[in-house]
Amino acid sequence: MAFDMDKVVGWLVNTMINRAKKAKFETWEPNKKLKILMIGYNGARNTGADVRVVSIVEQFYHILGKENIEIGIMTLDPENTNVYFKPPTKQIKFSSIFFKPLLEACNQYHIGVLSEGSTLKSKFANSLTLFFVEGAGILKEQGKPCIAYGSGAGNMDDFVYKMAQKYCTQTYFICREQASMDIVNKMGIKGEMGTDTAWTFPPANPEWAVKELKENAGWDGKKPIVGVAAINPFWWPVKPNLTKWITGYGLRHPVEHYQKWYFFSSSEERSKLFDNYLSGIARAVNKFAESHNAHVILFGMEALDLDAITRLQKMLKTKAQLYSSKFYDGYQIMALLRMLSMLVTSRYHARVLSMPAGIPSIAVSMDERLYNLLQESGHLDDYYLTVDDKALGEKLTVAMEKIWQNREKVSKEIIQTLPDYLKRMSDMGKTFRNFVKKNFPQFPLPPEPKDWMGYLPPLYPELSKIVKGPGKTN
Prior knowledge:
Layout: H1 5-19, E1 34-42, H2 47-64, E2 69-75, H3 78-81, E3 90-93, H4 99-107, E4 111-114, E5 118-120, H5 126-141, E6 146-153, H6 158-167, E7 171-175, H7 178-186, E8 191-193, H8 206-216, E9 225-229, E10 239-240, H9 242-246, H10 249-252, E11 257-259, E12 262-263, H11 268-292, E13 295-300, H12 306-315, E14 320-324, H13 330-337, E15 342-345, H14 348-354, E16 361-365, H15 368-377, H16 380-383, E17 384-386, H17 392-405, H18 407-439, H19 461-468
Parallel strand pairs: 1-2, 1-4, 2-3, 4-6, 5-6, 6-7, 7-8, 9-13, 9-15, 13-14, 15-16, 16-17
Antiparallel strand pairs: 10-12, 11-12
Helix pairs in contact: 1-5, 2-18, 4-5, 5-6, 11-12, 11-17
């Protein structure tokens, strides 16, 4: 008899939540450090997932005092996150079979933070959403506060929706876009508007980026650089499949195997859509590179993107160096993104990390995240495309030419949006400070910041200049 393995995951999540009250768990006591658990999708070399949590951690240390708190990070692989999280931040290893390790981690902490952007949605994997639901449910059962920080919500399968609605009722959601806020409100969950948290993440030294591009990418130091952040938009959602796991299907078809019992979606139709997506991007990039004597580099913002950018590389007429997060960390990738003259991206955080440098970018989008960013900068009509557009190559060609002709204007419009995002992130910091004050009234909060920038972690110089405005240095 066939059964839905996603529902088996849901059953296991329910089981762990039901055990939460009976488990031996810590509660905060005065004169002890407040232990904060980051429940996110870290350790898979997903640049966006990692850098946004780096920014959260730095913000929390800044507004609560590093001496007063202990932060733990759930990570799939500490070796992949060592570059981001140094002591006293602790790393807690878990795997995609997360049920018991998450319960054990929640037992040891006093407050939980759902720190992933794609928190409540079935788009990528029901198991990912159920991971966050389990964390929220355990904390609820143990009477511990939980907050979702810069989170998103989207369409969910019915049973996932009902579980989230049941177990997230005590979680306070700070959403990064209005559409997410609308879904959360409809579920009867309290929250407020915020933003993504990666805005304050700093780049590596620009001198490193110049050297890297010249020595390894063959850049002559003069040509405009076009970056492309490509993905496979058509192999989601990832689903558990016990039969494929037991029979060794993943060994015979490694591209379809995510890890353990999880497999990407696959079909002949999906393969055709993926081919159209890659070939459309390749045609447009080839034409632009030839017309404008441009240098091309390719970004894999998640380790999983390596297959997509390798395939795209073979379709390009010019040599294009691959910059995969499998081999380059977020600091390095951000520094390289800042070197671009233009970005074509299907990755939300490629756009986010390039924005402080005002890099003109075109979205080739699979969901609502890039839509919202381009809408807020006024670029939706001209520079937003979708991954399943049959005429992608032709439309992208037009968009690339248009953004090139208007690159200075577009750059200014992008930079003008940043102070508002940072103000929203500052408001999130204030909300979190008040959240801690409400739930732990005896916690020794540092003095309240004098202005809104005091709720942000220290900004790197270029970002600080954008916030303060031209000519202001103090």
